[in-house]
Specification:
The chain has 3 domains: about 20-80 and about 400-520, Sandwich (Immunoglobulin-like), CATH 2.60.40.1180; about 85-395, Glycosidases (TIM Barrel); about 525-615, Immunoglobulin-like (Sandwich). Helix 5 (about 145-160) runs parallel beside helix 6 (about 180-195). By secondary structure, the protein is of the alpha/beta class. The strands form 7 sheets. Strands 3, 16, 17, 18, 19, 20, 21, 22, 23 and 24 form a 10-stranded mixed β-sheet that branches. An 8-stranded parallel β-barrel has the order 4-5-8-9-10-11-12-13, surrounded by 6 helices. Strands 25, 27, 28, 30 and 31 form a 5-stranded antiparallel β-sheet that branches. About 20% of the residues lie in helices and about 35% in strands.
């Protein structure tokens, strides 16, 4: 939410593209197996007996400083969903008067593409100030002309995004806009955007109308809003019956505005999406610090619970269509700091766990407040720390969220798990503690054959540790966003999977993304039998014999264990330890004359025992 003064001076920003990100998402940790990133090392699973190798191992570096031992258990219990177009951006409607949103802005288009196909929301406070002007010249203050819509549509299509397009409602208080003008603008927008139009949003934060100095000051209620909103909606649909309408884009007041609104308009099928805004606190408050920003946000969790229940009751999804750290443009030096990188990762995951179908992070301009992408007069200046956090989040999804259980004492650490559509498992751990590094043991829901790790951190020139309040120096695996160029992370660290267990470090003030390739699903193991080397059934006294377990599978195949599906011998044994002993690797040693049975257990299966006789050595 921008203040009127900020809107008057608001400028533009953009975002660089990331082709490597596509590879990361498509392959997840298969990247590690395929070596899609430069310098990627070999990764071996000691538990499954399988390995995926590329050129050179790249072990994670031991972080300096205090270390806390922690553990993370990842379950196979679904805990939410990160759908397509989850992490989007939001801009002020007034941005039409600058040159950012046009097809020739290659840097901006690349930055949008870096986040994957998503949703741009065009609205904000200025949506209720800018008026459709069908004969306008374009790029004119307080006007939206056909050429402005054309330019925006060209940008959105080039980026491969869709748009949630805002329409002026508040201006009806002075007669600046009317339902007829709104209907004209929507009809033109539908024509220009085509399939790139996701929805129409009528007005911005109508729950704040009625306040002193605002629209309908001193004379406003939900009932009055619904009456006005319905006038605009009816006019729009009379001209463009196919226009998808969303709302209410409320600022706060979830229980008293958004949910009641949904209960009134949804049963007749009047909207396709509930929209809500969220900011943690005022950017002007002295308590709006970097340290506070990265603490758990119980307010957000409570609001999401109300929204989720309300949306479910009327069977319509909900989206957090305008959000950021602190409102009123943010807290200078805080909303544009490294704290926003770590905060936004938690914020996006919290929203996904809370049932939202997506989030739009508000921005635009080049101030010291919030904006993922900084621009000036339509020219991209840089990708801010917050952009890195959004980018990092997109590397983990989309997919199904799994429940996690993290044990890290009293440290401010969070952990999330996403099963990607590829079947790979992506883990994100965010360590907000300024001092303590984590030595983390991870228990996976299934065995893994490969794993790699990307780290997001910050380091200023001359500094030796990350700083929450730093406004530059953020990297993902050592790489920065270079404007105009695709983003490419550095070579991932390679981790060794021991069956279903991983170990790694999570440095202080960092986030890590662990991409895991699980053991591929295969045929069911039906039975197990044992054989001595070359079929031998005798051992000379004092000698040794290697035994191997073989599995019979549901598809009729036979394979030695451990196999490629995670099946391995969990226990070797012998019926008489006085005659033979056997190692954990199936290596039997003859101790005295006699006959014994070699035994083995594979999970819940017991192998058919193999008879072996210890004989005296030939004279």
């Amino acid at each position: 939410m921008k203040t009127p003064n900020e809107i008057a001076v608001l400028k533009r920003l953009t975002t660089p593209s990331l082709l490597t990100r596509r590879q990361i998402l498509r392959g997840g940790v298969a990247l590690a197996a395929a070596g899609s990133l430069k310098g990627l090392g070999s990764v071996t699973s000691t538990g499954s007996g399988s390995s995926a190798s590329v050129a050179v191992p790249n072990p994670q570096i031991l972080p300096s400083g205090p270390m806390t031992v922690a553990s993370l258990a990842v379950t196979a219990q679904a805990a939410g969903l990160i759908g397509p177009a989850f992490a989007g951006l939001s801009y002020e409607k007034m941005s039409v008067q600058w040159s950012f949103f046009q097809a020739s802005n290659e840097a901006g288009i690349t930055l949008f593409q870096s986040l994957g196909p998503s949703l741009l929301r065009m609205g904000g406070s200025s949506v209720d100030q800018f008026v459709w002007t069908p004969n306008g010249a374009g790029r004119t203050y307080l006007q939206v002309a056909p050429s402005d819509v054309q330019n925006m549509a060209a940008f959105v299509k080039a980026a491969g995004w869709q748009i949630l397009y805002g329409i002026n409602l508040g201006g009806a208080a002075t007669g600046a806009t009317t339902p007829a003008l709104a209907a004209e603008e929507v009809a033109y927008a539908v024509e220009q955007f085509g399939s790139s139009l996701f929805g129409i949003e009528i007005g911005n934060e109508p729950d704040a109308y009625g306040a002193p100095g605002s629209y309908y000051a001193g004379n406003w209620s939900l009932a009055q809003y619904l009456a006005l909103w319905n006038q605009f909606r009816s006019a729009i649909l009379a001209t463009t019956p196919s226009a998808p309408i969303t709302g209410p884009a409320a600022s706060y007041n979830v229980s008293t505005w958004t949910v009641p609104y949904g209960q009134v308009v949804v049963p007749p099928g009047e909207i396709t999406l509930l929209t809500q805004h969220y900011y943690r606190a005022s950017g002007q408050a002295p308590t709006s610090t970097a340290a506070f920003l990265v603490t758990p946000d119980t307010n957000l969790i409570a609001e999401l619970a109300i929204l989720q229940a309300g949306a479910k009751s009327v069977n319509v999804p909900f989206r957090m269509s305008e959000c950021n750290s602190y409102y009123a443009g943010g807290a200078n030096g805080i909303s544009n700091s490294y704290a926003s990188s770590l905060w936004v990762i938690d914020f996006l995951f919290n929203c996904a766990q809370g049932g939202a179908v997506g989030v739009n992070l508000h921005g635009g301009g080049n101030s010291d407040g919030y904006t993922p992408i900084a621009d000036w007069n339509g020219v991209v200046q840089d990708a801010r720390p917050e952009y890195y956090g959004i980018l990092f989040f997109t590397l983990a999804g989309p997919g199904t969220l799994y429940a996690t259980q993290l044990s890290a004492g009293s440290l401010n650490v969070t952990a999330y798990a996403v099963e990607a559509t590829s079947g790979n498992l992506n883990l994100v751990i965010v360590n907000k503690d300024p001092i303590q590094n984590l030595q983390l043991t991870i228990q996976l829901p299934q065995s893994a054959i490969a794993a790699s790790l990307l780290e997001m951190t910050q380091l200023s020139a001359g500094a030796v540790t990350p700083q929450l309040t730093a406004t530059t120096g953020v990297t993902i695996q050592g790489s920065s966003v270079i404007l105009g160029s695709p983003f490419a992370a550095g070579a991932p660290y390679t981790l060794t999977a021991d069956g279903s267990q991983l170990n790694c470090y999570v440095p202080a003030l960092s986030a890590v993304l662990i991409q895991v390739v699980p053991v591929p699903p295969g045929p069911t193991l039906i039975s197990v039998y044992l054989e001595g080397k070359q079929g031998a059934t005798t051992i000379v006294l004092g000698g040794t014999l290697q035994f191997t377990a073989y599995g019979n599978y549901s598809d009729g195949s036979i394979a030695s264990l451990p196999d490629a599906y995670g099946n391995t011998v969990t226990l070797w044994n012998t019926s008489n330890h006085a005659i033979t002993k056997i190692s954990t690797l199936g290596h039997a040693t003859a101790l005295s004359l006699g006959t014994v049975y070699i035994q083995a257990t594979v999970g819940a299966l017991t192998a058919s025992p193999c008879q072996v006789t210890v004989v005296a050595a030939s004279p």
